[in-house]
Design brief:
about 190 residues; alpha/beta; Rossmann fold; ten-stranded mixed sheet; 10 strands; globular
């Protein structure tokens, strides 16, 4: 049974919102959630970058910014690889050790510049813990394509018709998966 829940959709479709709402629902159900959010940084109504937020600790760092002095360029942004490497290792690692559910927002071209991030995501997806992740919609090759085609993945596309109910549906599925894993563990 798939234990990795991936949310995709067009830019601005609400992927990150669905992830955030699902996390809030899971926490209300009493589950420990950890991992990374990557919210936008806005200045005067314009997106100027992205930050990373460790869900468990609250630590924040810059992921990419239009004023970033160095790093790989993705669109108009430059990625801060040092921050990405350190946050991927610490936040995803902590979630694997201590949380019931691992969150990765988002598996996308910016993050593919980091070998540490790719290893951390693979480790999370290979674990027994449910993973909730947003994933780039258009990419079908490379690591992103491999993640989408895994047999242990359920892929949900966010659209106007399901945006309001998707977080509840996914939270219920993850809740069942965590309880099932706990039952298996307790029997051993």
């Amino acid at each position: 049974m798939p234990n990795n829940f991936l949310i995709t959709g067009a830019p601005g479709s609400g992927k990150s919102t669905v992830v955030k709402e699902t996390v809030e629902l899971l926490e209300k159900m009493g589950f420990r959630v950890g991992g990374l959010y990557c919210p936008e940084i806005r200045l005067g109504g314009e997106r100027v970058g992205f930050k990373m937020l460790d869900i468990a600790t609250g630590e924040e760092r810059i992921l990419a910014h239009i004023d970033q002095p160095s790093g790989p360029r993705v669109g108009k942004y430059k990625v801060d690889l040092k921050n990405l490497d350190e946050m991927a290792e610490s936040a995803i690692g902590l979630a694997l050790r201590e949380a019931d559910v691992v969150v990765v927002d988002e598996i996308a071209p910016m993050e593919m510049n980091s070998e540490v991030f790719k290893r951390a995501v693979k480790g999370a997806l290979d674990s027994q813990k449910p993973v909730l992740a947003a994933i780039h919609q258009r990419t079908t090759t490379g690591v992103i394509g491999e993640v989408k085609s895994r047999p242990d993945v359920r892929l949900f596309e966010v659209g106007s018709a399901n945006r309001g109910v998707l977080s509840t549906e996914i939270a219920r599925m993850i809740s069942r998966e965590v309880r099932r894993e706990t039952e298996v563990f307790n029997r051993e």
